[in-house]
Design brief:
Blueprint lengths: L2 E3 L2 E3 L3 E3 L8 H9 L5 E2 L3 E2 H6 L19 E6 L6 H11 L3 E6 L4 H5 L10 H14 L6 E6 L6 H16 L4 E5 L13 H11 L4 E4 L5 H11 L3 E4 L8 H10 L10 H19 L3 H13 L6 H8 L7 H9 L22
Parallel strand pairs: 3-11, 4-6, 5-6, 6-7, 7-8, 8-9, 9-10, 10-11
Antiparallel strand pairs: 1-2
Helix pairs in contact: 1-10, 3-5, 5-6, 8-9, 10-11, 10-13, 11-12
Length: 348
């Protein structure tokens, strides 16, 4: 049960998605240590990559460690001519795959003609893909992240398929498709029925699915119901790196593992803080870890109280006091509460 991106073989088809503002080096490392076979870095702008200097404050964007491989660098921009040199910056930094983002639905991104904006202009999108594929070495797979269109109009659907089919003709190894439209952003359920239809259309071309993957069971269910070759876990992996090991257990026919105990949670939270401090420094890491702490707290039986304490951490090292307060005695953890609608089943 693996995944192949051209010559790159990945041993398990549940991978960590690119998450803007989240999938930095510490998050990716923890995901790998807990069973993710492949991760994607947070998206980087082409202009940023072309202008970035080797400074301590920005060095974390291109940080890769030996244990991470294979890892993908994700690229986003507006002007096709800026993509090839930016892609080469990612190759030179050591990324194993170049992923092109045509899926970001954030308004300020769309307003600058980036991300999901390109789904409305197929010729520009295909020019970007062609330029990147021609620029990077043949052994580096190029992949594309998409949503199922700008909106639900027939024209938008036609534009999606024009880009989708054209991408493979130009040599992409795989596409990742989110079951929501750009217009939807993150509202409403992800349309898994569309993913099933798409995979039937794609045949043996590699397609990964995305959207509403909050549990290990969701990951396997999407593959089973839609036929996609793999899935990318996004928000479901924030503060929950255990989801990858849980998915591996289910795929192997074993029972779903129990949630991590409080001691197991304490170890991983401390590990995450320490990796963040290595990356950003003790003070800058506090803001970065606040958003992760909120998510980790969901696995604690007294999650609301733990969350309140973690978000109050204002000084380097104070997080240790929170761990001593709430994780000093071992006990059972809990699965994170899923407060969003699950993806629309393929047979709906």
């Amino acid at each position: 049960m693996g995944l192949k991106l051209d010559n790159l073989e990945i041993d398990f088809p549940v991978v960590q998605a690119a998450l803007s503002g989240y999938s930095d080096w510490p998050m990716r490392v923890l995901a790998r240590r807990h069973g993710a076979p492949y991760t994607l870095c947070e998206v980087m702008l082409d202009k940023f990559l072309l202008e970035v200097k080797s400074r301590k404050r920005t060095s974390h964007f291109l940080r890769i460690s030996d244990e991470e491989h294979p890892v993908a660098g994700q690229l986003m921009g507006a002007n096709p001519v800026d993509f090839p040199p930016a892609a080469m910056k990612l190759v030179e930094a050591g990324f194993d795959v170049i992923d092109i983002n045509f899926g970001c639905p954030v308004k300020k991104v769309l307003g600058r003609c980036r991300g999901g904006f390109h789904l409305g202009q197929p010729q520009v999108a295909l020019e970007i893909i062609d330029r990147v594929r021609q620029a990077v070495p043949n052994h580096i797979p190029v992949t594309v992240k998409m949503r199922r269109g700008i909106d639900d109009r027939a024209e938008s659907r036609d534009q999606f398929y024009e880009i989708f089919d054209g991408a493979y003709r130009l040599g992409v190894a795989a596409t990742t498709v989110h079951g929501r439209t750009v217009q939807q952003r993150y509202n409403g359920p992800s349309n898994w029925n569309f993913l099933r239809e798409l995979k039937q259309h794609a045949g043996d071309r590699v397609v990964l699915g995305s959207g509403d993957l909050f549990t290990a069971d969701d990951c396997l269910r999407m593959m089973d119901e839609t036929g996609v070759d793999g899935v990318t876990v996004a928000r479901g992996a924030i503060g929950n790196p255990w989801i990858f090991g849980q998915a591996r257990a289910l795929a192997a026919g074993r029972p779903l593992p129990e949630p991590p105990t409080l001691f197991e949670q304490r170890q991983v939270i401390a590990e995450h803080y320490e990796l963040a401090e290595q990356t950003y420094g003790p003070r800058r890491s506090l803001m970065t870890m606040r958003k992760f702490g909120i998510k980790y707290a969901r696995l604690h039986p007294q999650g609301n109280a733990v969350r309140a304490d973690l978000v109050q951490v204002k000084e380097p090292g104070q997080w240790r006091d929170v761990l001593r307060r709430w994780y000093a005695v071992d006990g059972p953890g809990c699965y994170p509460t899923v407060d969003e609608v699950a993806g629309q089943p393929a047979d709906a």
